[in-house]
Amino acid sequence: MKKWSFFLILVLLLSLVPGTSMGFVKGDNSLQHTVSITPTDDRWIDEGGYVDNKAYRLRVGTYYGSEERAYLKFNLSELGIPPEFIISVTLNLYAYYHKGSKTHNITVYGVADNWNEYTINWTNKPQNLTNALDWQLGKSVYKWYSWNVTDFVKSEMEGDKVVSFMLHSNLSHEPIKDYIYFASKETSYTDEKPYLEIVYRSPISISSLNVPKSAFRNQPFKIKVILQNNKILDENVTFLIYVDGQLFKNETILMKANSSKELSYEYTLQTLGTHQIKAELGDYDTKYSTIKVVEHPMDIMSRLTTFYDIRYVTYLKPLLDEKYSSYLDIISELEEYGVDLGPLKDKIGAIDASMLLIEEYYSEYLEIKGRYIRPLYPYPLMSYIRNAFLLTRETINRINEIMPILNETLIRAKESPGNQTQISLVRVLVDSSHGQHYNDQRLQKLITKMEDELGWMVDVNNEKLTPETLSYYNVLIITNPRSDITDEEAQAIKEWVENGGGLLITGDWYAFVYYRSLNKVTEEFGIRFNDDELMDDERNTGRPYFPLVGEFNLNHPAMKFLNESSQLYYNGDTLDVSGNAIWLIRGYETSYAEGENNEISKEKGSKPIVAAAVEVENGKIVAYGSSKAISDDYYGRYIDSNWPFLKGVLLWLAGEI
Questions:
Q1: CA 525 to each of CA 294, 515, 612, 617: distance values in angstroms, whole numbers, following the listed order
Q2: Of 528, 657, 503, 645, whose CA–CA distance to 581 is shortest?
Q3: Which of 36, 586, 608, 645 places its Cα 20 to 30 Å from the Cα of 602?
């Protein structure tokens, strides 16, 4: 009895030993692994109580209506594979004999584990835990049959890791003698033993590959890796790292059971751009990451310093010296002729101040450069030469801007010696200080036309409008603001107009006229911007809210370049006029205006006013309901169609017609 007990224990232990024919069989070394496990217990039982004494076989079928079924039990505790790593599980049995002639539908069920092959019988058989897991049609012999039991095995892996199955035939209660014999674990034919085949991805993996998103060229960075072993067995693994396909690291690492290992390496890249890092854990797992290599800021600053130095010393400074010398000569001559330089006082002052600042920047640069061969902090060195470079370029542009005016004035002064010669110059200020959508960046074509076609000088304002700022300019352009024109600014603008300034002020349609501060400037003089939008269902450029306008007050001098056939692109609000204000442009008979809630504010046939003019003491105002109309929008078609109107308006505002 003791010898028999010892034999049973030995059989059980052998069934759990890896690599034995009765237990765990290690699979191949690939990303997808396969293991085969033989049963710890298997037995067939008969409904009528018959007990088979031949342990090498399992019988499934019927014996004149007495059901015969087979049971198999597997212990999976040695696997150490988390359920989520399992891909598939199949139960496999070898059929070697068929008694009878009928085809069986053999179904597999998951059952409870409270049985063993020595005591199981029909009375104490384990209960079913599942419905049918899978089925196979069986008649042929000398072949393997397989059933898919993946889900049931995965659920048992989360529990006691012991799994039992029952095989049942649909012919179980047929009053015939028909059954199939399958080989059991006790068969003497090793290659016919039943087994559970588990396909899984390796629980040895690269948990993480951490590489910084960017690194400096020629500066080391860290490659950090965490390896994970979720198996219950230790294993030696080969770990490799590739950088851009080139092997960087190759080492064998012992991964302890149920453990992780952190690895860290340094690497330096000399090439700019994006690089690929690949971590490879034998054939178990592979992970990729990328890193972008950029220039070190100090290297960039060093190269920029050299660039600015060469450009400044060899090109810009000699050019500036030449132009500034000519500029000083003309200024001196104009002063000898008694020319009043007042209209250019701010421009002349800015040039003189820039020359002093350029010299200061360059002196500081030379002083730092002479003190250090390679400064620890190169930014101050770079910033001084950069400031000198940029300000020199800006000063050359400023000199170029006013030199034609100075030359033309000098010619006139020489032609009329002894007479007081005035600088003939129209200066325009485009306001971009109130968050305008239609700012100077969207008015480039208008600015270019004023500079090239009219020969005017155009500046952009980004500061608060003050009497001092306005005093230098003949014309002021304000497009629809998105932040309020303050009361102080409105008062300064009105006083400037009364003293001879020319104001072009433009609105927008109701959804974008966020601030009604335009009326702070114009309403006092008889022009009001309305909270609506001009529409025209018939005469438009594709939509009613993109109407064309073409009713002009051709008697007004500002309309000099328009005729009865002219048409202008328009998108904006309407105006009301009173007092001395007069209309310049109206909508067609078919046009009308809508308010914010689609209410009609101007009926069809009313020919809503969209542009108006008024003379205010020594100055003039033109109001236009569309800022879009003077912009570069729609491939320049707005400014192109409106330029004949705007040209006349600007010349009238400047007093040139």
A1: 60, 19, 11, 11
A2: 528
A3: 645
